[in-house]
Design goal:
This protein has 16 helices and 46 strands. With 804 residues, the chain is α+β, with helices and mostly antiparallel strands.
Length: 804
């Protein structure tokens, strides 16, 4: 009896193994097949291996997305996903069952999603099909699209494609592509809580009111890469082509995606491994998304109070105006909220010129937020009418005077608008400068001159260019009145930063007793301040600041205070009292990258790569995108802090100029940053942004390996200089040695190799060979190809510099 049972189990096992082998060759999955959501989870492949079905990890909350993606493209381009509003927790399971079809359950066995059908087949077209034993198609992903259409996919009348919420959030977004009953293909956006659909902002105009048989009835994306709308017209039919240019599908992958920002785009990607491997646009709709949307309802292409600027690729760029900040700092396409308050309750019925002032914005408008229009009227009268109206938040002077109140919707920048917007703010508050909108096709420059048509400051402020230092250009915006807090402190610095007295900061830090860090610039203390509510802050007490350098200190603090980026630590205030110079920063509870990276447990590969990307974006902002170019001069893991979500935040930027010259060189070159120093510091060569690129390269290799660059505690035989060893491993093709038992990194070997090559390019001994941080960011994110890296130190051994 036991022998018979054993024989039966053996036969069943062999049958299942055969079925699984078939699944690897023809894309079909037998009943009972399952995948568990883990970092190294397998996937179900189509027979060609070009498409995969399975779990993709998300960037938040340790959740996974059941999805279909291109298996042969390094960037995980997802073309279909299930239940984006409720992604699966780790250890969830998707299984093909006999009675319920494809079933997705959480780790406790609770149902998350199901298809209610049987056998699954992952087709080479990217279509996941569920069918019965007779091969009848009972469900398919092509008939239930999310945000993407693929070649051979058809959308019938009534079909809907919906955008995701953001680039990385797969919850339902607010934009839709629909084929209406009347034959029009339209784009519209909706109110998410109720799914109420607003007016279209694009229509294909394939509805023929005079002859309904000539109207559109089917959207086809054919196997040749053409997308068109088929019209009802007898046996032959007519079609309205959306794709005008032939890009062969034999050589390129194709997809058409309704992007999270509302632009519907057909893309292509080369199948060959050589050349520029990135998604490029064939066409997109609409041509201008920064227009009035929703017939006055909703926020428009960007969030409320935001400004939409059309980029060269017809995608929108959203920016908050001066004095406004993102409601959700992680969603730059979301709504903006004012950093100040305008209220009739405090001001009575009238505002006055003593209480309020304006920031002037050129060629910016929020056309659907009007409540009054005055005509005829001149510019001064328009400004005064808004000052004297406590309900007025913005006045637009263009063909009359248009008065607006918050929230502002459908904001946009348009060079042809020929108008001015006067944005009102209280005089006790100084709005921070924000970079002007960029014209399509224009390259960003580190220079701070404003171009015609950009957002500029108006009659209440003027631009004052000041040359500071040997290699930095800075600007300061001088207002007619100083903030009351600054006047109380007796400082001449005009800025929106809060001024603290030394006594206030001594009380906030319990007489500077709670020190939790020290760097090349001074000791850092933890403290609490009252600003409407109790806030925890980090107070940095600067050492050996340039003596008799009051003007220099104020100028540099003002420059630091005007920076605004999610990968920079925010400066909240300062103290400049006698010999006491202190800076007050936001407090980040997760500490430094050094503690996180070199601690007892190794952070996940995904966390490390995201931290590296964040640091690169922060440095790009400092070098090229903020009003004044800032060279950090001391990039190292101790100067990278982590916020509550483990996002990288660069600290101590802009402080290098505040130190005594000799000390600056000593601290930056040797004492505080052994192992991170660019060779030019020792060769009397010009110091440029490339010193930061070098330090970033060293730190990137540390992030890859979770090991310090210079570790003299280990023996010579154990490769004490990391960058030397990393280059040797790269040349020998032994990348797995660098990461030890890190299986997550080994399973993502293409990303590992890309990041290592970028790091080696950054540590080139010759500064001219090092890429800019813009190029570094593009290479890290896979936007551009990373060439083979040359020997980084052909003339000498860099480790000699870093150990002196």
């Amino acid at each position: 009896m036991a022998t018979a049972i054993f024989t039966l189990m053996f036969l069943v096992t062999m049958v299942l193994l055969q079925l699984m082998a078939v699944a690897q060759t023809n894309g079909s999955m037998p009943v009972g097949a399952f995948i568990t959501a883990t970092d190294d989870a397998p996937s179900w492949l189509s027979s060609s291996g070009e498409f995969a079905f399975g779990f993709q990890p998300l960037e938040y909350k340790d959740h996974f997305l059941l999805s279909i993606w291109y298996a042969k493209i390094p960037e995980k381009t997802i073309v279909w996903y299930a239940n984006g509003d409720n992604p699966a927790p780790r250890e969830s399971k998707v299984e093909l069952t006999v009675d319920r079809g494809l079933v997705l359950t959480d780790p406790q066995g609770n149902l998350i999603w199901s298809s209610d059908i049987l056998l699954g087949v992952m087709n080479d077209t990217g279509n996941f099909v569920l069918q019965n034993s007779n091969s009848d198609r009972l469900w398919e992903s092509f008939s239930n699209p999310t945000d993407t259409l693929l070649p051979t996919q058809i959308m019938e009348v009534g079909g809907v494609v919906s955008s995701r919420r953001t680039e990385t959030n797969f919850s339902l977004g607010r934009f839709q592509l629909r084929l209406l009953d009347n034959g029009n293909l339209v784009l519209n956006y909706m109110n998410l809580p109720t799914k109420f659909v607003y007016d279209d902002y694009y229509t294909s105009e394939t509805y023929d009111a005079s002859n309904s048989s000539n109207s559109g009835y089917r959207l086809i994306f054919n196997e040749s890469g053409y997308m068109y709308i088929l019209r009802r017209n007898g046996l032959h039919g007519l079609r309205e082509d959306l794709t005008k240019t032939a890009i062969p599908t034999t050589d390129f992958y194709h997809r058409a995606t309704l992007n999270f920002d509302g632009v519907f785009t057909q893309y292509f990607y080369p199948k060959a491994s050589s050349g520029n491997r990135s998604w490029s646009s064939v066409w997109s709709k609409p041509d201008k998304i920064c227009v009035n949307m929703g017939a006055g309802l909703g926020s428009g292409a960007c969030g409320y109070n935001s400004i939409c600027n059309l980029k060269a690729d017809k995608r929108p760029e959203c920016n908050c105006p001066q004095g406004f900040s993102l409601l959700d700092p992680n969603d730059r396409y979301g709504s903006c909220i004012p950093d100040f308050e305008l209220s009739c309750r405090d001001d009575g019925l009238n505002s006055t010129e003593d209480q309020y002032d304006f920031v002037e914005l050129i060629n910016v408008d929020w056309p659907t937020s009007d409540y009054e229009r005055y005509k005829p009227i001149n510019e001064d009268e328009c400004r005064k009418s808004c000052l004297d109206d406590c309900l007025c938040s913005v006045a637009i002077f263009r063909d009359g005077c248009w008065k607006k109140k918050l929230p502002l919707s459908n904001g946009r920048f348009d060079i042809g608008m020929n108008g001015k917007a006067f944005l009102k703010f209280p005089k006790g508050y100084v709005p921070p400068d924000r970079p002007p909108p960029q014209l399509p096709g224009e390259k960003k420059k580190p220079d701070i001159k404003f171009i015609a048509g950009s957002v500029v400051l108006g009659t209440s402020v003027f631009v004052n260019f000041v040359l500071v230092g040997a290699f930095c250009l800075t600007s300061s915006f001088i207002y007619r009145k100083k903030t009351e807090k600054v006047q109380e402190g007796g400082s001449g610095l005009e800025t929106n930063l809060r001024y603290f007295t030394y006594k206030e900061l001594a009380e906030a830090t319990n007489d500077f007793k709670d020190a939790f860090g020290r760097g090349g610039f001074g000791v850092v203390y933890k403290g609490t301040i009252q600003a409407g509510s109790t806030s925890v802050v980090a107070v940095k007490k600067l050492d050996k600041v340039v003596q008799d350098g009051e003007k220099e200190f104020k100028t540099e603090v003002q420059v630091i205070g005007q920076t605004h980026h999610k990968n920079l630590v925010r400066l909240l205030g300062f103290c400049d009292e006698g010999q006491n110079r202190l800076l007050v920063y936001e407090f980040l509870s997760n500490g430094t990258l050094a503690n996180f990276l070199f601690g007892c447990s190794k952070p996940s590969w995904k966390q490390r790569t995201q931290i590296a990307f964040g640091i690169a974006r922060g440095l790009l902002y400092l070098h090229e995108e903020c009003g004044t170019q800032i060279i950090h001069c001391d990039i190292k893991p101790q100067n990278i802090l982590l916020d509550n979500y483990y996002n990288a935040r660069i600290s101590d930027f802009g402080l290098a100029k505040l130190l005594v010259l000799d000390q600056s060189k000593t601290q930056t070159a040797i004492r505080g940053t052994k192992g991170y120093v660019a060779p030019e510091w020792f060769r009397n060569r010009p110091i440029t942004v490339k010193v930061d690129v070098y330090s970033f390269g060293v730190m990137l290799i540390e992030i890859i390996c979770c090991r310090r660059n210079v570790d003299l505690e280990i023996g010579e035989a154990e490769n004490p200089v990391l960058i030397d060893w990393a280059y040797d491993c790269y040349m020998n093709g032994s990348l797995d040695v660098l990461i030890g038992d890190d299986m997550e990194a080994k399973n993502d070997i293409s990303t590992l190799e890309r990041l290592l090559k970028v790091g080696i390019w950054c540590i080139q001994e010759d500064p001219s060979l090092r890429p800019t941080m813009r190029k570094v960011t593009q290479m890290l994110e896979g936007v551009v190809e990373v060439p083979a890296a040359p020997n980084p130190f052909p003339y000498s051994t860099i480790s000699n510099y870093n150990q002196e």
